[in-house]
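Chapter summary example: a protein plus FE2/S2 (inorganic) cluster.
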Amino acid sequence: MKNRRDFLKDVCPTVAFAFFGVSFIQACASGDDDVATSNPNNGGNTNSGTNYNIDLTSSSYSALATVGGWVNAGPAGIPVLLLRISASKINAYTNVCPHQGINNRWSLVGDSFKCAQHGNSYATDCNSALTCFTTSQSGDTLTITIP
Ligand code: FES
């Protein structure tokens, strides 16, 4: 089985662009697949993924002060749902519905996030199809790492 890079080398000639369109051009760019990235929202952190730092004292995240409180950080440019699951832990979940990839249609119903697009629910225990990302907290700063 070919890896992604070998596949792209084989299919990148002009004819492949005709089939896959302009977005395919980026996939054919040279360089490592696992380049370090940084984000202007991450306080200068750099790693193999993207770190987002959130100031928990911001009124935008005040719902996270209470266990069971949640925030969709998507409108702030951070593609996660945040849920305080205990006094010391805030979980981060993808904002992309595992069913058909819809964003921002979420509500919290009991212990599950429910997508209003088709009504699917995903448990918040990080064992469902709804991907959880690593979080850590230092003082009032929550850091989310998206691989
Ligand atoms: S896209 Fe979310 S339930 Fe279908």
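Key point: Helices lie at 4-11, 14-20, 23-27.
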